[in-house]
Fold this sequence. Notes:
Elements: E1 2-4, E2 6-10, E3 15-16, H1 17-24, H2 30-38, E4 42-44, E5 47-48, E6 55-56, E7 61-64, H3 67-85, E8 89-93, E9 97-102, H4 121-130, H5 132-140, H6 145-166, E10 179-180, E11 190-195, H7 198-206, H8 208-211, E12 225-228, E13 235-239
Antiparallel strand pairs: 1-2, 2-7, 3-6, 4-5, 4-7, 8-9, 9-11, 10-11, 12-13
Helix pairs in contact: 3-5, 3-6, 4-5
Amino acid sequence: xxxxxxxxxxxxxxxxxxxxxxxxxxxxxxxxxxxxxxxxxxxxxxxxxxxxxxxxxxxxxxxxxxxxxxxxxxxxxxxxxxxxxxxxxxxxxxxxxxxxxxxxxxxxxxxxxxxxxxxxxxxxxxxxxxxxxxxxxxxxxxxxxxxxxxxxxxxxxxxxxxxxxxxxxxxxxxxxxxxxxxxxxxxxxxxxxxxxxxxxxxxxxxxxxxxxxxxxxxxxxxxxxxxxxxxxxxxxxxxxxxxxx
Length: 245
C-alpha cells in the first residue's frame, strides 16, 4: 500500500474489482465495500470506477479515496453539469483564467440596468423546455454568468483543499470568486474571458487594447427591418432577411 491521496493498492494478479477490494480491506464487510463503489470513492489507474465487475490486470493501481475528497469531487462535477445546463460552455481553463462561451439571454453579471440579474424570457423558456437540471435552473429565475462561475470555482477550491489535507499538506485558501475582464451585454453571445484572481484581471485589463486587436459583433434578423432617419424618424431604407448589408 502506498501513501498519498487515499489508500492505493497495486494489482498483482488478474481479477475483478470487488473481489480485489474485499481482499485488500479485510476490516470491511462486502456491503461497506460496495458502498465505497456507489459513493465514488474508488479509482482505477486514476479514473473513477463504480462497476464492481471491472476487470483488473497486473500493474493496475486501485485507490480508495477519503469520503471528504469524493464528496468535493462530486460537487465540482455537479457545478460543471449546471454550467452545461445553462448552455455556458467551458472552453478553456487553467490556474489563472477561464474562457466560457456565453449564450444570448444570460446576463454576464448583476446590473443596475432594467434587465438586472434576470435572464431573458426566451432563454429561460429554452431551459424550461429541456427539463432536468436546465428546468430547475429556469425555476430559479434570477442568476448570471458571474454567479454560476463563482459556484464552480468555489467547488474547485474546496476540492483542492480537501485533497491537500488528505495528503497531509497545508491547503491553499482563496479561489472563492471570479473577476470579469470584460462584460458583454445580456443578449450578446460568444467567448468571455474571466480571471480567477484579481492580479490576472488587472494584468489582462491593462493590456487589453494590445491583446484584443478587433471586436466584431454579428447579428441575424428574420423579418423586414425599417431603417429610420435619426433626426426626422422618416423611413429611409428597408432590409429583408435575404438581403446583404
